[in-house]
């Protein structure tokens, strides 16, 4: 019988195809595992709906305009006496921003109520940064009401929810406000340290009657310094006309938001170690996907480029907004309409201004005035 020569091996293509498909599947699985958050955020317009839009309250202001006229422009009336203002914050380690905040608001605030803990929201032990640097804030000493919340140290491997620890601290603030002497009709600011209302916003709300009893504050959002303006997306800060039912929160509480009411400077730290401390200690510490994220050289490079520390896509609900905000944040050369105390002390706070992106490596205190 003649030998059948030159016929192809019919089993080879199916085996090769199977191996190729297996490799493709493995690559896809690894890609989804390592970039799942990015993939999820990119397709967010398909699976998530935007929250109900805020109803913006127009904000009128110009220098040398009378308070009576400004109140009238908002549909309010001027008071015979200003309200007392209580500024309440849960403090971590933002000493520079706290100094700027309190100097900026000091002429209008009756009490600075500050609560800090000996642990981060993720259960990591931390120093009492404010208590150990209290002398730096001697200019406001008579107004300061300070307390320490006893945090819970997370055991190794524990899966404690950082938002629970954060909520417990916010609950403790209610009692601290009462001990500070707040009473019905006072104006209460609820915000994080880096969410700074503008002085003219406080003065207006302090002197006008007829304002809503609760308003969110629309703050211009910056990242790393005032060199990188992002947008006006910051909304969590609130002002309340205090009543016995008022509770300290940092979430959405009304549909009303007061336009262009201040500044929010996220991750605006003097040193690289402060960046690492924040990245591992705040409620979204799960965004640190590997130890490489905490590398000082990486962080420094990202700060100067205006990129995202966590290598994330923007949290947007339309592809148009998502694509528009992808990539580095454009640098700004403007230092106009920023906190006055920052400009008055520009040399001390150079890292917060255009051209000052280089950071110290270790924790440092602000240079003496």
What is the overall shape?
Answer: globular
Order of SSEs, N→C?
Answer: HHEHEEHEHEHEEHEEEEEEEHHHH
Structural class call reads alpha/beta
Rg computed from alpha carbons, rounded to a whole number of angstroms:
26 Å
Strand order of the largest sheet: 1-13-9-12-6-3-4-5
Distance between the termini: 104 Å
**Given the structure, what is the number of helices?**
11
Main pleated sheet: 8 strands, mixed
Helix percent reads: 25-40%
Structure description:
The chain has helices at 12-42, 44-47, 67-73, 95-105, 129-132, 162-179, 199-207, 272-281, 296-305, 319-325, 340-344, and strands at residues 55-57, 77-78, 85-91, 111-117, 144-149, 187-190, 195-197, 208-209, 214-217, 219-223, 229-234, 238-241, 256-258, 262-266. It is α/β, with parallel strands linked by helices and 369 residues long. A hairpin with a 5-residue loop joins strand 10 (219-223) and strand 11 (229-234). It is globular and about 90 Å long.
Quick summary:
The protein has 11 helices and 14 strands.
List keywords for this structure.
369 residues, alpha/beta, eight-stranded mixed beta sheet, 17% strand, globular, disordered N terminus
Q: Mind sketching the topology for me?
A:
Elements: H1 12-42, H2 44-47, E1 55-57, H3 67-73, E2 77-78, E3 85-91, H4 95-105, E4 111-117, H5 129-132, E5 144-149, H6 162-179, E6 187-190, E7 195-197, H7 199-207, E8 208-209, E9 214-217, E10 219-223, E11 229-234, E12 238-241, E13 256-258, E14 262-266, H8 272-281, H9 296-305, H10 319-325, H11 340-344
Parallel strand pairs: 1-13, 3-4, 3-6, 4-5, 9-13, 10-14
Antiparallel strand pairs: 2-8, 6-12, 7-14, 9-12, 10-11
């Amino acid at each position: 019988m003649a030998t059948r020569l030159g016929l192809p091996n019919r089993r080879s293509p199916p085996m090769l195809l199977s191996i190729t498909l297996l490799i493709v599947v493995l690559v896809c699985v690894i890609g989804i595992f390592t970039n799942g958050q990015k993939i999820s955020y990119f397709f967010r317009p398909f699976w998530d709906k935007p929250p109900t839009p805020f109803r913006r309250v127009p904000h009128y202001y110009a220098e040398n305009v009378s308070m009576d006229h400004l109140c009238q422009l908002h549909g309010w009336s001027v008071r015979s006496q200003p309200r007392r203002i209580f500024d309440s914050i849960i403090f971590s380690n933002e000493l520079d921003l706290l100094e700027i905040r309190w100097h900026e608001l000091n002429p209008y605030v009756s009490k600075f109520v500050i609560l800090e803990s000996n642990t981060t929201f993720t259960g990591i032990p931390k120093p009492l940064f404010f208590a150990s640097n209290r002398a730096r804030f001697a200019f406001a000493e008579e107004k300061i009401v300070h307390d320490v919340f006893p945090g819970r140290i997370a055991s190794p491997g524990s899966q404690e929810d950082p938002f629970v620890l954060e909520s417990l601290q916010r609950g403790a603030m209610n009692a601290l406000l009462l001990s500070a002497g707040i009473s019905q009709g006072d104006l209460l600011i609820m915000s994080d340290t880096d969410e700074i209302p503008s002085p003219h916003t406080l003065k207006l709300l302090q002197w006008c009657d007829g304002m809503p009893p609760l308003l969110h504050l629309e703050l211009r959002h910056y990242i790393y310094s005032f060199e990188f303006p992002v947008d006006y997306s910051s909304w969590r800060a609130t002002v309340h006309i205090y009543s016995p039912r008022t509770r300290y929160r940092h979430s959405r509480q009304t549909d009303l938001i007061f336009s262009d009411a201040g500044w929010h400077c996220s991750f605006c730290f003097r040193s690289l170690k402060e960046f690492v401390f924040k990245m591992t200690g705040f409620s979204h510490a799960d965004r640190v996907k590997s130890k490489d994220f905490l590398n000082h050289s990486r962080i420094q490079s990202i700060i100067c480029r205006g990129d995202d520390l966590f290598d994330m896509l923007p949290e947007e609900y339309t592809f148009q907004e998502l694509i528009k905000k992808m990539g580095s944040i454009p640098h700004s050369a403007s230092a106009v309409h920023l906190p006055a105390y920052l400009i008055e002390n520009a040399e001390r706070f150079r890292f917060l201004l255009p051209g000052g992106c280089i950071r110290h490596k270790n924790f440092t205190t602000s240079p003496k005035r």
